[in-house]
Design goal:
With 751 residues, this protein is an alpha/beta fold. It is built from 27 helices and 29 strands. Bound molecules: ligand MGD (2 copies), iron/sulfur cluster and molybdenum atom. GO terms for molecular function: 4 iron, 4 sulfur cluster binding; metal ion binding; molybdopterin cofactor binding; oxidoreductase activity.
């Protein structure tokens, strides 16, 4: 008998609630959960394909262990034993830095990815941490760290209430949003326009999002920092908006900011941006005049040469227009499983470059090193060379620049373990592959995305399908990996949850009860631990975080009417469609953790970067640059194996403007050779005026033509790996983020 079960969708940042139809252990259908407190029934084609993805026959169902050079199916004990033998041996022989850790994007879409990697890193003691952030949003973490003192204090546009939205380098109609969790982002944009609000999109392509907009500006890629600097300068010089006193009193460096931006007049930046000074002045005027407004930038403003400057300027504009931290502007969410707000005041601040990478001398940011530096850290001999690697939910061979080099570097590792459901371009190098179960068999709570959600709410779904025989829950895999990193395996590990999760719970409760400002001060941590409910280690940890969180019951000392008297896991389980916690509220000054206790408008590292931006005014722009794009039915590098999502317009083609096509002798449906720093690719051409002249676009995540992977559908239409055009030398220096957009290319027709 088919039944239904709820599952929060883990396939993009929108976190829609799904109602799955389940027959036995098979998901036969998925629709939007109309009663979900946040997504209200919305679903996209990826969510609708949940069942096909869940039952993809290419998913690994047993661990793989390399024996005699070949990966062979193995049991879990054998797999963990191999890890527990190899990793500690490397650490004892070559030191902690000899093991690197790579964390890929899906870690923010699983509970395991939120709960265990910090423990793994602590156990290994390595500083060689590389994540997808340095291919993505690290510039935003750095700018928030510098402005507000906390790299996670990222304001999100108040999508449902704003009167004016300026979207920069984001295409939420295809991506469904990022660092702005909003199920049905397209519907929310339409609602903004329907209530008389204004949508302005800045993108070198006329995207589906741009087509919804009142105004679309198509600047030259990579020039956003200049455009934003000119907007900020115009606001300061011509509009001088009156700031709400709560905000004005908390600013530090306004005068210095005005001086630092003086040279970025609309006239000065117009040629580099290829937008007229009048258009820039009009936009500044409209932004200043809007009753409420939010400025929001994403991939196209981050993975570019001046990514940190652009990310910083986005919030400078939110501040200068008085829109930071007010309804309708850009606000800081308050997630249910996050910490309770503490009174603001001088904090520890945010520091970059507390250590540097061994070979390239790249500064750390948020304890991470640039992913583009991974290959050289493996290749270059000497003390501290990476010889072992733990890769969790990561496919850097495709997602990071110069995959060919990384491919060769990975092949030379002494030991590599991948936690991945697929044998793909990256995991094929592993000595041990630990596959998580299909998503229907995992519980879900969004630890990461509720911190970026446009509405405070909390939801939790238990596994929709019981864990099938022979599989291990991903939390259990991570817990056993932590133990294996410490050399423990087999009979030495009777209960991984007990051994790994309970110490975390005890430590958190010990800290809480020792805090004189806590209502739980002086209580017995052991007694409190005994009050936790939950069927597993991760559930008990979730219960703890919810109870100690901003809406928590504080074990009886707290109260919140929305959560039925104070949030607990048990109360959340009673509300399977989630609990709405209301619209975002102002949170200043509590979020501030800068040393001054104020918003640092012009932090030193930013001031030191501005001369480089000024020199960009004089540079001659490249004739042709490349940008990426995303397709609604795709997701980075791992969703090309589902027939229901493949094909149609979801193809790896090079978009070329008709003028460029004519100039270069390219034809629609023909082929071209693209060449850049890292090499050449031969790709099919699609002539379209959705890209501006002087810009071509190729999506990422393709290039499934390597031997040894097991992706039968993807391999049939492999596409080309755009990141092979890069050699990894182009970086946003402050954040170590790869420049993936707006780099120069050359094009030639192929017969
Ligand atoms: N040129 C260019 N390159 C880009 C981008 C771009 O815009 N342009 N975007 C960048 C961005 S924003 C990102 S985030 C990165 C993403 O790059 P990565 O972090 O490498 O992530 P994915 O490509 O999504 O690959 C995810 C891996 O996780 C595995 N996986 C899927 N589900 C699970 C799961 O539940 N558990 C585990 N353990 N593994 C799972 C998949 O099989 C796959 O191997 O790519 C970046 N690369
Ligand atoms: N369907 C789908 N959804 C996804 C993903 C996916 O791969 N597919 N990936 C997920 C991930 S990991 C992320 S991080 C998010 C990303 O979410 P978004 O940032 O919304 O993603 P993109 O569609 O890459 O939008 C970036 C836009 O920036 C534009 N752009 C490029 N260069 C520049 C520039 O220099 N200036 C300006 N102003 N614009 C520029 C591009 O043309 C593109 O339209 O999407 C998530 N959602
Ligand atoms: S928008 Fe994102 S979260 Fe919602 S159904 Fe689609 S993939 Fe899933
Ligand atoms: Mo991303």
């Amino acid at each position: 008998m088919p039944r239904t079960a709820l599952r929060i969708c883990p396939l993009c940042e929108a976190t829609c609630g799904l109602t799955l139809t389940v027959d036995g252990a098979t998901v036969t259908g998925a629709r939007g959960d109309r009663e979900d407190v946040f997504s209200r029934g919305f679903i996209c084609p990826k969510g609708a394909a949940f069942g096909a993805l869940d039952s993809d026959p290419d998913r690994l169902r047993t661990p793989l262990v390399r024996r005699g050079g070949r990966l062979r199916e193995a049991g879990w004990d054998e797999a963990f034993e191999a890890v527990a033998t190899a990793l500690p041996a490397l650490v004892s022989e070559y030191g902690a830095q000899s093991v690197g850790v790579v964390l890929g994007n899906p870690n923010v879409h699983t509970m395991a990815g939120a709960l265990y990697p910090p423990l793994l890193l602590r156990t290994l003691g390595t500083r060689n941490l590389f994540t997808a952030s340095t291919l993505d949003q690290m510039p935003k973490h750095v700018s928030s760290g510098l402005l507000f003192g906390d790299p996670f204090a990222i304001p999100v546009p108040d999508l449902d209430r704003t009167g004016f939205l300026l979207l920069i380098g984001a295409n939420p109609v295809e991506s469904n949003g990022s660092l702005c969790t909003a199920p049905d982002f397209p519907g929310r944009l339409k609602a903004l326009r329907a209530r008389g609000g204004t949508l302005v999109v800045v993108d070198p392509r006329r995207t589906r999002t741009a087509r919804l907009a009142d105004r679309h500006l198509a600047p030259r890629p990579g020039s956003d920092a200049l455009l934003l600097a000119a907007l900020a300068r115009t606001l300061l010089a011509d509009h001088r908006p009156t700031l709400p006193p709560e905000l004005a009193d908390r600013l530090h460096g306004l005068r210095e900011l005005r001086e630092a931006l003086a040279r970025f007049t609309p006239e000065a930046v117009a040629p580099a941006c290829d937008i007229t000074a009048a258009e820039i002045r009009d936009l500044a005027r409209d932004l200043a005049a809007a009753p409420t407004a939010a400025v929001y930038g994403r991939i196209g403003s981050c993975t570019v040469e001046y990514g940190t400057l652009a990310s910083w300027l986005v919030d400078v504009l939110n501040i200068l227009t008085g829109n930071l931290d007010r309804p309708g502007g850009a606000l800081f969410p308050l997630p249910a499983a996050g910490p309770r707000p503490r009174p603001g005041g001088p904090g520890r601040g945010f520091t970059l470059g507390r250590w540097h990478s061994r070979v390239g001398g790249h500064p750390e940011a948020k304890s991470e090193l640039p992913l583009v530096a991974l290959a050289e850290e493996i290749e270059t001999p000497g003390e501290g060379r990476i010889r072992g690697l733990v890769a969790i939910a990561a496919n850097p061979v495709l997602s990071s620049p110069d995959g060919r080099r990384l491919d060769a570097a990975l092949a030379g590792l002494d030991f590599m373990v991948s936690v991945d459901p697929y044998l793909n371009e990256t995991s094929r190098h592993a000595h041990v592959v630990l596959p998580p179960p299909p998503p229907a068999q995992s519980a879900h709570h969004d630890f990461a995305f509720n911190g970026f959600a446009v509405r405070n709410q909390v939801r939790y779904t238990r596994p929709a399908v019981p864990l099938q025989e022979g599989l291990l829950d991903e939390c259990e895999i991570h817990a056993r990996l932590v133990l294996a990193a410490a050399g423990l395996h087999g009979p030495a590990v009777p209960d991984a949850a007990e051994a790994v999760d309970e110490p975390v719970i005890r430590a958190a409760l010990a800290k809480e009860t020792a805090d004189p400002d806590s209502p739980l001060h002086g209580q017995d941590p052991g007694r409190l631990a005994g009050l936790l409910t939950g069927a597993s280690g991760p559930e008990r940890r979730l219960d703890l975080m919810l109870r100690l969180g901003p809406y928590g019951d504080l074990f009886g000392a707290g109260h919140d009417a929305r959560a039925g008297g104070g949030l607990t896991l048990a109360r959340l389980l009673d509300r399977p469609h989630g609990i709405d916690l209301g619209p975002l509220q102002p949170r200043l000054p509590d979020v501030l953790k800068t040393r001054s206790g104020r918003i640092e408008l012009l932090p030193d590292p930013i001031a030191a970067e501005l001369p480089r931006l000024r020199s960009a005014l004089a540079e001659r722009p490249a004739a042709l640059v490349l940008v990426g794009r995303r397709h609604l039915r795709s997701n980075n590098s791992w969703m090309h194996n589902v027939p229901a999502l493949a094909g149609g317009s979801n193809r790896c083609t090079l978009h070329v403007h008709p003028q460029d096509a004519e100039r270069l002798g390219l034809t629609d449906g023909g082929r071209a050779r693209v060449t850049a720093d890292g090499g050449s690719l031969d790709v099919p051409v699609e002539v379209t005026d959705t890209v501006r002249a002087g810009v071509v676009s190729l999506p990422h995540g393709w290039g499934h033509d390597r031997d040894g992977a097991r992706l039968s559908v993807a391999a049939a239409s492999p596409g080309a790996n755009v990141n092979q055009l890069l050699d990894g030398s182009r970086l946003d220096p402050l954040s170590g983020t790869a420049v993936l957009n707006g780099f120069p290319v050359e094009l030639a027709p192929l017969p």
